[in-house]
Queue: 2 jobs
Job 1
Amino acid sequence: MNITEFIAALPKAELHVHLEGSLEPSTVTEIAPEVSADEVRARYDYRNFSGFLEAYKWIVLLIRTPADYALAARRLFTRLAAENVRYAEVNLSVGVILWKEQDVGAIYDAVRKESLNAPFPVRWIFDAVRQFGPTEALRVAELAAERVAGGVVGFGMGGDEARIASPEFAEAFRFARAAGLHLAPHAGETTSAESVWGALRLGAERIGHGIRAVEDPDLLAHLRREDIPLEISLSSNLMTGAVLSLRDHPLRRIADAGVPVVLNTDDPAMFRTTLCREYELASVEQGFSAGELRQLAENGFRYAFTGSARGS
Ligand SMILES: [Zn+2]
């Protein structure tokens, strides 16, 4: 069995994938016939984080109805199942839905229905957008809290890390935690290790990206001691310019420091990747052995918010 077959056969979990970033060009042309697949491919090409955010804004504005979101979800689940994914937690950018002044309830009902028909268990994480500010983040936390019994397991926050400092979001995270939601904000992707400390002070149980932790030995030791995993996405980090090359990506150093790691796609269509490809990159570019890849795959289940390690 070669490494590609080995990875394909591994039962995997996907814990950090944005529904909005999963629309392949062919799906985009279905929901927005005025756009060509070539235009989508051109839009999905960038070399830095602001270029990515621009493309993300463009794509979310094309997702206009609950049926569009449902189609995106259906396609994502079909692709993940083909990769032998057995469990997924999917980020829904509720902050963006509010910004678009769309009906969060109708959209969530539509995607939830799709997830109940998926060939593996799916849970949802509602994401706020950092640059939209604390009041909007609290609103997202409230909308998530209303659906704790209906498939939503987490509250997260993405967007531009450099824009607003973490403490301003304490109320939203406190509210979410008290409502029984798990906390998985993005941090330490484009800025610094301090951003990860800020997320930890908000109560983060997993960190989206967090790769800047490699710059702070005390932080690495803390993450190891507290058993807090980093959700790492190699292709994403390369395409947003968070790292200059995959060879230099800190994944290996972070894992060798004993910090738990899960591998994810983040925005698979927008970063032209798949979960299997992320495992292959860990093997080829970072020298992960078959045994280490198996450990990474097991981490996906261990650190799931419904997993045995964390309960829920
Ligand atoms: Zn992300």
Note: The chain is about 45% helix and 15% strand.
Job 2
Amino acid sequence: MKQRRIAILLGVLVILSCIFLYDRLWGPKSESSLDEHLINDFIKLYHSSGIHYRTRWLGIPTLENPCDMWAIQEIITETRPDFIIETGTYKGGGAVFYASILQNSNPAGKVITVDIKPQYDEAAKLKLFQDRVEFIEGSSVSDEVINRIADRIKGGKVMVTLDSDHHMTHVLNELRLYSKFVSPGSYLIVQDTSHNGHPLKTDYGKGPMEALVEFLKENKDFERDPSREKFLLTFHPGGYLKRVR
Ligand SMILES: C[S@@+](CC[C@H](N)C(=O)[O-])C[C@H]1O[C@@H](n2cnc3c(N)ncnc32)[C@H](O)[C@@H]1O
């Protein structure tokens, strides 16, 4: 009798599992879950093609994608910061891009960009870079770098974009240090929140997304602004933070 009951129970479990699997794989999907799959598949396709290694602004390589660049362009134009701080300069393409937009939205605006390794020699030949970009060599989280930035931006309206070492500990450290610089109404952009399976680089380990989630638990001055992801393709999902107070 007992064995029969167990067999029936197991049978029911197998049938329920089959129904669940069928529904997940072939069952009708809501429009939004279909869209989400489509978008994630496109982001993976875009990333796996390596186009971001062949993307340039005014001839200078940047690892950004055009949709995020456009979203950032809108943020700069709307908020007109006096200073844009970028951690992670790489070849300088991002810095030159921010400088080009600032040139029109705030002619006095400057970009301060930090990297442990200067590799921006091509960008440095551009007049735009010479006029508007200030490079600081060092780790973005070192006391020396933080003090230099704090001195430079005094009294200005500041926007920050974090794009250096993407491991969680480093990004969380940056978030705690650089959030203080961001002016109310301005943005703090946490780049590459797509790492660690969101939806890219599944084996990365804890990265910007995990840092961001932790940061938002402890700091109530910032809120995610999903309207900045309207172009659908983004490497920074949930990473556009607005300082609301
Ligand atoms: C993703 S790339 C930056 C891309 C650049 N923002 C762009 O738009 O093309 C990351 C850069 O962060 C730099 N980096 C790594 N660790 C760093 C740290 N602790 N402090 C500052 N920069 C760092 C690397 O040298 C590298 O150039």
Note: The two ends are 67 Å apart (CA to CA).
